[in-house]
Write a structure and sequence with these properties.
alpha/beta; two-stranded antiparallel sheet; 9 helices
């Protein structure tokens, strides 16, 4: 019996925007995975702190994906405690959910930097951060989506790290009009976010932001 294929789409989702949803839908439409799990990171990471807290980001995500049963919220990285990075999280996911095959969804522009990924809390004996991106490339199947100005790695270059299949999906013209930074900037300036966020969660994002500003 074939395992269910799960695409992990990670990030802060601070907040989720329309391109996140379009990307998940494209992965499903191209039959690259059977489900997409939105996996928000903890509110405090080594490189950033989010505007919306974990509970708020999860609630906004739930509202945004409620109409598609193949797109789900996975809050396991938040519940796992201090941020450890993609490789540590995905390794634990594979160990605890053996009934699934997991794929990591990332932009082609991100691929070149994966070798610099590390575990912020995994210090080596000489007190340097332990890099583990090469292990992720070796052990986790990837789905890369096109980003303007970035090229897919050649299959030959990817084989240096992995024998796993590398899937690529062209989304030029489909995504690229929104970002979480744009949403936050619009909120801060009192501008409309209608074209940037899913219709189902627009009011919740606006209300959550306004409540946050009052406190």
């Amino acid at each position: 019996m074939n395992k269910l294929r799960i695409g992990i789409l990670g990030g802060a989702f601070d907040p989720v925007h329309v391109d996140h949803i379009k990307l998940a839908e494209a992965c499903l439409e191209h039959n690259l995975v059977d489900q997409v799990w939105f996996t928000p990171s903890p509110s405090i990471r080594w490189d950033k702190e989010t505007l919306f807290n974990s509970a708020q980001r999860c609630e906004i995500l739930k509202r945004s994906i409620q109409d598609n049963p193949k797109i789900k919220l996975c809050d396991l990285e938040i519940k796992a405690g201090p941020y450890r990075g993609a490789y540590v999280f995905l390794t634990e996911l594979k160990r605890n959910y053996r009934e699934y095959d997991f794929f990591l969804i990332m932009g082609a522009d991100t691929y070149s930097g994966v070798l610099n990924w590390r575990d912020p809390r995994g210090l080596t004996l000489d007190n340097h951060l332990k890099f583990n991106g090469h292990l992720l490339l070796k052990e986790i199947p990837l789905i890369l989506f096109s980003r303007e100005g970035s090229q897919y790695p050649s299959k030959e270059s990817h084989r240096k790290y992995s024998k796993l299949k590398l899937s690529c999906i062209d989304v030029d013209g489909l995504i690229g009009s929104a970002s979480s930074t744009q949403v936050r900037d619009a909120l801060n300036l009192g501008l409309s976010i209608t074209d940037l966020v899913p219709k189902s969660s627009e009011a919740l994002i606006q209300d959550t932001y306004e409540q946050k500003m009052k406190n």
